[in-house]
Amino acid sequence: MIDIKLLRTLHAVASTGSLQAAAARLYVTQSALSHQLRDVEQRLGAPLFVRKSQPLQFGWQGQLLLDLAHRLLPEISAVEQQLLSHQPTLDQLRLTVECHACFHWLLPALKAFRQQHPDVDLQLVTDIDHHAVEAMVQGELELVLTTDQRLESQVRYQPVFELELLAYMAPEHPLAQKDYVEPSDLVREVLLTYPIEPERQDLFRFFLEKNQFEGRQRHVAQASQMLQLVAAGEGIAVLPTWLQEPFVSQGLIVTKPLGLCGLKRTMYLAIPRHLQHAVLAKFYALLRQLAPR
Fold this sequence. Notes:
This protein is α/β, with parallel strands linked by helices. It has two domains: about 5-80, Arc Repressor Mutant, subunit A (Orthogonal Bundle), CATH 1.10.10.10; about 85-293, D-Maltodextrin-Binding Protein, domain 2 (3-Layer(aba) Sandwich), CATH 3.40.190.290. It is built from ten helices and eleven strands. The chain has helices spanning about 5-15, 20-25, 30-45, 60-85, 105-115, 130-135, 185, 200-205, 225-230, 280-290; strands spanning about 50, 55-60, 90-95, 120-125, 145, 155-170, 190-195, 215-220, 235-240, 255, 265-270. The strands form two sheets. Strands 3, 4, 5, 6, 7, 8, 9, 10 and 11 form a nine-stranded mixed β-sheet that branches.
C-alpha cells in the first residue's frame, strides 16, 4: 500500500495545495494522479482528504502518510544523491545553534543520534554562535540551527519546528497587566538581547520594524542570565515559550504574547548546499521527531 511514489505524491499535494498543481509538478496527468489516490483510498476504506476543501486538507489517514513522507523522503533523496556522487563516508559533524535558548530541547536529539551512529563524531560547538552560518560557509561547521535564513545561494534550510517568542518581564512591570504586548509598549523599554545587530533580531525585524526604538538595549550572552535579570526587574527579554518554566509557576516572571496573534518563527537546520549525505537526513529526521511541540 505504501510506496515511494505515493509518499512523493502526497508531499506534492501538500506543497501545492491542489491535485492539478501536484500533477504538473510530478509530470503526470491529473487523471492518473486521481486514480492513484483513489486506489489507495479504496484499500484504506477511508478518504485521504477533506472533501471540497480549498486548499486541499488532509484527513487523519492522509496526514499520517504525509508525516511519513516528511520523515522518509529527505533520507531517500540523500541516499540517492550519495550513490550518484560516490561520496565518501561522513565521519564528523560539527553543529552549533544561533540561539543559546535552544540547547534544552536539542540535547536528547544529539544523544539519540550518537547512539544510532557511533561512527560519526557529532560535536556541539559552543564558541561560534551568532554568526554561525557565515562560519559554516567558511568550512568551520557542517550544521547550524537558526531562525535566520541568509546566504541562501550557498546554504539550504530545512524546517524543523515552529516556535513562539514571548515577552518576559517582572510581575510588577506595568505591561504585566496587559493581555498582550504591542510594539508601542516596547519602544522606550530596556530590552535584554543577545549581542547581535538589531537587523538580525526577530524582535526588531518582525515586531518593531515600523517603530522607532528609543529605549536601550542591554546585551546578555546567555538566556539563563536574561531570565535572572528579568526577574530582578532589570528589563524585558524576548525568548521562546519553553523557557518560561519554572519562573512563571514560581511567580518570578510574567510572559505576554507579542501582538494579538503572537510572534512565531520557524527553526531551520542549515546545511551547506554542496554537502550531501544520508546521515544528514537521519539527523534531520531525529530533530523533527524530538523537537518541541
